[in-house]
Amino acid sequence: MNATQGHYFVPSVSRYSTLLSSGVFFLALGFILRLNGTPAGLWGMLFGAALILYVTVGWFGEVIRESVGGIYTKWEDRSYRLGMIWFITSEVAFFACFFGVLYYLRLISVPELAGFDPAYTLHPDYTSTWPTSGPMGEVFTPMAAWGIPAINTLLLLTSGATLTWAHWALLKNNRTQLIAGLALTILLGATFMGFQVYEYMHAYAELGLTLGAGVYGATFYILTGFHGFHVTLGTIMLIVILGRCMKGHFDSHNHFGFEAVAWYWHFVDVVWLLLFVFVYWL
Amino acid sequence: MTTAANHADHAHHGHHPKGLAHWLTTTNHKDIGTMYLIFAFTMLLTGGAMILGVRAELFQPGLQLMQPEFFNQLITLHGLVMVFGAAMPAATGLANWMLPMTIGAPDMALPRLNNWSFWILPPAALMLVLPFFLGLAGIGPGAVDTGWTMYAPLSIQTGWGMDFAIFAVHMLGVSSILASINVIVTILNMRAPGMTLMKMPMFAHGFLMTAGLLILIMPVLAGGVTMVLLDRHFGTHFFNAAGGGDPVLWQHIFWFMGHPEVYVLLLPIAGAIPHVLSAFSRKPMYGYRAQVYSIWSIAALSLVVWAHHMFTSGMSVGGQLYFMYSTMLISLPLAVLFFCWIATVWRGSVSFETPMLFALGFVILFGWGGLTGLVLADAAAVPQYHNAYFLVAHFHYALYPTTVMGAMAAIYYWLPKWTGHMLDERLGKLHFWTVIVGVNLTFIPQFFVGLAGMPRRIPDYPLMFAEWNMLSSTGALILGISHLMFIYIVIKCVRGGKKAEASAWEGATGLEWTVPSPAPYHTFETQPVVK
Fold it and tell me: Tens digit of pLDDT for each residue in B134-156?
């Protein structure tokens, strides 16, 4: 920080936050009603989702206009960078929760469940193994690591490389390579999601691997599910960035939007590597 | 210094809305701080009204006023409303008001995000209490009734109030994570030139650690309640042994959030109080560096001690020993803080204005909360105290003096800066002594009934506990009245009183006292330079 920071941009109004909060409220309320036997809750969910969508487009649009309009200096840029870093930190904590659950179940609670004195348990035959669906769970086949999951690992790792390739192009002001790199990244991300959807359908239809398949099914779906959700969000963000690149919003010095999405994408990539090792492989 | 750079950017978007629209759209840290404080106080009264219902039921043995199911809803909502609705927003309100002013920043770093962080709170609070009022109107089974800890399998089996609580927790979590990101970015990027981290006000240090903790713990709770939702409605077995899960897993997740949460509530206050003690002792803060390092150590340690809440849930001896010793280790940095606070006052020319009284009250009463915590950290002794009223008294001595008395000390201290008026000292002192009588009359008896074996969360009790409970309920009523006095004093101060000077208190130091009282709407548009 230096002594000549100049003037910090403080927007005078925030038009969207109350709409966004209402959207979240109606989405959640509708969902609760639906879960508790009121199908009409769907309308609340749709209304809430529409509000959230409207706000997302409007709010990001406002920020993009300000950025393109040259309002931001290095000082504001640093705020956004720090903000994104700490946001990703909170996402790390979110996934750490589910990995913690997986380790706790595999290393502590399942062995303990199988370790009761046979004279005092209803399930003396239950032994500690992984994968497991517990002493009373359904029969299922676990997901094999060296099929689609391994291909998906390759796809995501490649997408990280193509994204970096696009970033180099942006730094060298090479527009063609930038757009090709981004488009490739989006394509790889979408293919990954396609395989994930296929894998879920396969798991449900043929393997008996459902949400109800004990703790293996539960941890499998919550980890891969939230990861897939993040990949989907990341792909949408990449599409927006691709559009902005084609409109020429970025140059080699000023492209925080690109970098933020790239950080997010690499984070999702790293989560997948851990997932592949601990959920599919080991 | 403040009027010179009234830059065009603030008028950039044309008109400023008036009336309600102004409050819905404002990006000014002072406006948002005010809304946070008003919201927190509304929640304090809501949670307080609920617990007064509980204390009324406990005034005598037997069931007089309500059924146990309703009683359970009241204690659960009291806990959730007070922790997430009152205590945390009050601290965030203080941060909004004072952080930019004490570090010489023009505003919070992300002003629009700041507005959303606040405006997601009212719908979240509504989400939490909605099933309660629907239940009163005869729709549905009522609010969440599991206790604020929401332990599985109770939380898996209870009615739809739990679903509302799950989404309320999600929304409250989003609010605290975003507010924390804002605080950290503001501190790291917006300090006045020359203000290094080790010249920063203690208040900023406290809130920096609180924000860091929140970013690490709130997502974990969000993940936890998501799993509860899946177990409730989508057939998973995270917390059900039939499918290989474990209900104790929920306790680990909850307390991984729940224990640092205590320090989330403490650290902003532990940062604000040294300023008050130093001002009214007319002495510099004692041991600034020691206090900063202690705050850092407390924050780091708080993340690795959570299972001391679970000694009676079943745990290996090795686990018990680890969590016992690591918990007791926290008392070392905490003791350093206490010695620094005492040494700040020691041999100062002390005067006892209202903020100072509340600060000293905080130091002493929070000390009791800390000392009674030591016996609860003892894995061998805790079966005697666990889930008895002793525990209730302990954590209320830890939380009430910090989040309410500490926050009030800070509010009274900075009120002249906000309103431009000095507060009514006579009423302020009366308020303080009412609080002191109320808090001790409420909670000292709970130590005794707890040691004698009265469990918490029970609407009825044996005759032998009757006298102490009667005293405790009387104290709660006095405490409730003291909060009404607080509103009156604050409103009176807003409306008028002796004019406050720029440096309202004789011994106060810091950037906020260099600007006029009340502080101008945009305080440091041109940053001051700190030597």
Answer: 999 999 999 999 999 999 999 99
